[in-house]
Amino acid sequence: MDMSRGSKFKDGIRIAAAAYLIYLGVKVIGDVMKGVTEGRQILFVIFGIVFIAVGIWIGLWSVKSLLKEAEKPDDGSGTEENDRNIENSESVTAKEDPERIEAGAAAPEHGESEQAEQKDAESEQAEQKDAESEQADKNRTE
Known about the structure:
Distance between the termini: 83 Å
Order of helices and strands: HHHHH
Shape: rod-shaped
Oligomer: single chain
Helix content: over 70%
Radius of gyration: 33 Å
């Protein structure tokens, strides 16, 4: 049994338990209204309300979990596809900036890579100006 089936089964059991808690809460409150219970009726009403509230909470939580599970791919290829996507993004980033991958940095955002390229271009221009000024100084001293 794969993980998604186990998760779906657990959510199904939780939904059934939630429905049973709601049923018990309604039944307890109904018995108090009919006068079946003797003494401590307030306590029975409080427990009925707590049963209903907990049942609703568990039910909503389980349905939400089932809906999240339904959005995931069921064929099992989702993890392999994600692995391939990660590998592809790492290789693209490595081609762009191998030092960044070696340092363990994450892939740059779209705007971040443009900024890095602009900084690289500016630093190259500054290096060229420095080299030109050094050459001009050498020419003057000769």
